[in-house]
């Protein structure tokens, strides 16, 4: 069960380890917290969200944003005092900024159609922090999701929790009629071009980062990882071998079959296409993977190299800086 910005982590876990997650519950959560353009309309404009971060940091120690988190308790002095106390005990001004800046940049919208786990989306119709439209979007874009809208405006899940508890209990008791998962969400590291031959040194580096699957073809190889951080660390270690000794690398995220680790659909094609645009020793991260890398600390630069003549435009990508 994931609440608020924790929903994105819960979705990723269900996709990366579907055989271990029998049900997914999302409460008051969203696929994207802040936006830079007009879409999605239910997300907070980035500039407005940055103002909230500054305000929450400046007023640390006070009953912050209670009118948004629990408006039904706004005039409850005991609750307000408790709310302030647990915020001070659990966080700090700098931690608030760090956490919220990470949450601001996460975007899992492109992953939602691939979530196979049966899912319950619970949202209060007048939630003042995350609009109910965000919950409706989740339910509409996840193939095995059910939406339950509850009355009220409180965002904190344990305020007036009885209706939520009933919805969760019914969901847990319901028979699981979703077929056993046949795919999982993998982080794909692909290397091709000159220097991509998988020699003993490269195999040793790959072994150090324990990919779940490794596929070798005449034109390169593909390793599948469970986490972006491990895949990125492996790619950067390989890059240290030096140009001429290592091929062009790309990192993407997409569905793969559980049985044999073969990427499904266009996931492998995207990885190959991105690697085809890079030079030896360069690492390109796809736009989709970049959207869930918020807070990783990895320096990324917008990739601007044009495709060769006669080739279709490549997906947007980001270059991992040296």
Helix content: 25-40%
What's the gyration radius in Å?
22 Å
Strand order of the largest sheet: 8-9-7-10-11-13-12
> What's the number of extended β-strand segments?
13
Indicate the mean pLDDT: 89
CATH class category name of the largest domain? Alpha Beta
Contiguous uncertain segments of 5+ residues? 309-314
Spatial shape: globular
Quaternary state of the chains: single chain
The CATH homologous superfamily of the largest domain is called Alpha/Beta hydrolase fold, catalytic domain
User: Count the helices. How many?
Assistant: 11
Largest sheet data: 7 strands, mixed
* CATH architecture tag of the largest domain: 3-Layer(aba) Sandwich
Following the backbone from N to C, one meets helices and strands in this order, namely EHEEEHHHHEHEHEHEEHEHEHEE
Beta-strand residue fraction: 15-25%
Task: State the domain count.
Answer: 2
CATH topology of the largest domain: Rossmann fold
How does this model look, in words?
The protein is of the alpha/beta class and 322 residues long. It has two domains: 2-173, Alpha/Beta hydrolase fold, catalytic domain (Rossmann fold, 3-Layer(aba) Sandwich); 183-320, 2-Layer Sandwich (Alpha-Beta Plaits). It is 35% helix and 20% strand. α6 links the parallel β5 and β6 (145-150). α2 (46-58) packs antiparallel against α5 (93-105) and α8 packs antiparallel against α9. The longest helix has 14 residues, at 77-90. It is globular and about 65 Å long. It starts with a strand and ends with a strand. Residues 309-314 have low confidence and may be disordered.
């Amino acid at each position: 069960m994931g609440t608020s910005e924790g929903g994105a982590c819960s979705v990723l876990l269900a996709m990366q380890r579907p055989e271990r997650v029998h049900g997914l519950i999302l409460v008051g959560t969203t696929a994207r917290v802040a936006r830079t353009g007009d879409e999605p309309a239910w997300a907070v404009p980035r500039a407005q969200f940055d103002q909230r971060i500054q305000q929450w940091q400046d007023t640390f120690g006070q009953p912050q944003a209670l009118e948004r988190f629990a408006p039904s308790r706004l005039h409850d002095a005991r609750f307000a005092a408790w709310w302030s106390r647990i915020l001070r005990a659990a966080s700090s001004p700098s931690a608030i900024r760090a956490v919220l800046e990470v949450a601001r940049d996460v975007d899992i919208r492109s992953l939602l159609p691939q979530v196979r786990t049966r899912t319950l989306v619970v949202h209060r119709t007048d939630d003042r922090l995350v609009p109910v439209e965000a919950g409706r979007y989740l339910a509409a874009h996840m193939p095995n999701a059910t939406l339950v809208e509850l009355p009220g405006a409180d965002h904190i899940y344990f305020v007036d929790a009885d209706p939520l508890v009933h919805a969760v209990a019914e969901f847990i008791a319901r028979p699981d009629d979703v077929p056993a998962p046949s795919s999982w969400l993998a982080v794909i590291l692909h290397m091709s071009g000159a220097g991509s031959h998988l020699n003993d040194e490269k195999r040793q580096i790959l072994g150090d980062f324990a990919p779940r699957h490794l596929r070798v073809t005449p034109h390169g190889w593909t390793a599948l990882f469970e986490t972006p951080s491990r895949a990125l660390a492996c790619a950067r270690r390989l890059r240290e071998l030096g140009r001429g000794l290592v091929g062009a690398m790309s990192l993407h995220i997409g569905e793969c079959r559980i049985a044999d680790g073969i990427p499904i659909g266009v996931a492998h094609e995207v990885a190959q296409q991105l690697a085809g645009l890079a030079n030896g020793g360069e690492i390109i991260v796809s736009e989709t993977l970049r959207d869930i890398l918020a807070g990783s600390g990895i320096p990324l630069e917008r990739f601007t190299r044009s495709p060769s003549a006669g080739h279709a435009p490549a997906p947007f990508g980001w270059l991992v800086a040296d």
